[in-house]
């Protein structure tokens, strides 16, 4: 029998846990499905499945073989799909879901530039801070912030990395003093979302290693944009994601604090249902997203962007310099000797605010 087909049959039997179920899914007879698996075992001289009257289970060798075969079949499908996709144009509705704050502050520019490049695709963006089942709810692409998704039918890919920033208004710092160490937060009202595990402990890494503090929140809120508004009103020291407050730091409305310490990074990933038969609209949007944020990261690593920047109309607060790598590229003042950014041409990936 055809070895490649036998591999496909074996994967289907393993996924469904049944010869009968695999036969129905593949439109084959149960006898043919059984024969394919038996031929594979004979060829490999090893048992891949344990069979009882009640159920099937993978042997240790079967589990190892399944994992490798799945990758081989996925790669083969990907090659065939790539060849076919060259003659396909991205068209139709593209359903995208993303967390509310990240979507509002970082997603609009990339959706706009994608829509310009592929006018036959209509982006349909949903913002939600709940768990989303991409397959069941019919989304083509999902963006996840600090959340893992494990499913055989879902593929994930790193998009970018975010950073939590401790900050406050100049007026608040003038009145209450400027924290210089994580322990100083214990004497200030703080504005941050509680950790998902139910603990408010913050873990900083600094010159002397790890520092754990449990600051007292001044107010409870389940949305970081609301916490940003409270911070701008001078209600306390805020701990907020960099993609949310870039413009506030650039304008001097907020001042970054604890420059010698950092909090754990925020991993931002793309998720989409299976790489098999990926529509051109999905493939091109994912590529566009990745290129967009890769350009952002490259610019944020540019040494020229590491010079301190004075806030417009304000003097920096003592001990709290503002660095250009915390700010949106469009908000940076000119760097002496640097060439101005060129206006992006149609379809070019514009530089978004860094995470």
TrEMBL record:
Gene3D superfamilies cross-referenced by the UniProt entry: 3.40.190.290, Winged helix-like DNA-binding domain superfamily/Winged helix DNA-binding domain
Domain HTH lysR-type: 1-59
Region spans: Disordered: 296-315, 334-355
Presence of the UniProt keyword Zinc in the record: no
PROSITE patterns listed in its UniProt record: HTH_LYSR
Keyword Cell wall biogenesis/degradation: no
Alphabetical UniProt keywords: DNA-binding, Transcription, Transcription regulation
Family stated for the protein in its record: Belongs to the LysR transcriptional regulatory family.
PANTHER family: HTH-TYPE TRANSCRIPTIONAL ACTIVATOR TTDR-RELATED, HTH-TYPE TRANSCRIPTIONAL REGULATOR
Name this protein carries in UniProt: HTH-type transcriptional regulator DmlR
Species whose genome carries this gene: Paraburkholderia haematera
Gene behind this protein: dmlR_23
């Amino acid at each position: 029998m055809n070895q490649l087909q036998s591999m496909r049959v074996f994967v289907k039997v393993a996924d469904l846990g049944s010869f009968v179920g695999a036969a129905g899914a593949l439109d084959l007879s149960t006898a043919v499905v059984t024969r394919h698996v038996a031929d594979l075992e004979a060829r490999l001289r090893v048992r891949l499945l344990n069979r009882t009257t009640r159920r099937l289970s993978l042997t240790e060798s079967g589990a190892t073989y399944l994992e490798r075969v799945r990758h081989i079949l996925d790669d083969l499908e990907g090659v065939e799909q790539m060849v076919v996709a060259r003659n396909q144009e991205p068209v139709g509705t593209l359903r995208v879901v993303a967390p509310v704050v990240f979507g509002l502050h970082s997603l609009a520019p990339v959706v706009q530039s994608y829509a310009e490049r592929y006018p036959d695709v209509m982006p349909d963006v949903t913002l939600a801070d709940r768990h989303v089942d991409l397959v069941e709810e019919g989304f083509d692409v999902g963006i996840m912030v600090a959340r893992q998704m494990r499913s055989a039918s879902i593929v994930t890919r790193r998009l970018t990395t975010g950073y939590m920033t401790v900050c406050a208004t100049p007026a608040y710092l003038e009145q209450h003093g400027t924290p210089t160490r994580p322990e100083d937060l214990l004497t200030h009202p703080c504005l941050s979302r509680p950790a998902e595990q139910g603990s408010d402990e913050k873990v900083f890494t600094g010159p002397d290693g790890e520092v754990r503090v449990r600051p007292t929140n001044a107010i409870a809120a389940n949305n970081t944009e609301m916490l940003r508004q409270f911070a701008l009103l001078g209600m306390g020291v805020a701990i907020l994601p960099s993609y949310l407050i870039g413009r506030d730091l650039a304008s001097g409305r907020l001042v970054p604090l604890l420059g010698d310490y950092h909090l754990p990074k925020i991993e931002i990933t793309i998720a989409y249902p299976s790489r098999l038969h990926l529509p051109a609209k999905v493939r091109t949007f994912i590529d566009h997203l990745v290129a967009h944020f890769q350009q952002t990261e490259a610019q944020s690593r540019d040494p020229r962007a590491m010079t301190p920047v004075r806030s417009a109309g304000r003097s920096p607060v003592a001990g709290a310099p503002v660095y250009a790598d915390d700010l949106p590229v469009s908000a940076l003042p000119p760097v002496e000797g640097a060439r101005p950014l060129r206006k992006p041409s149609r379809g070019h990936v514009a530089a978004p605010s860094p995470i």
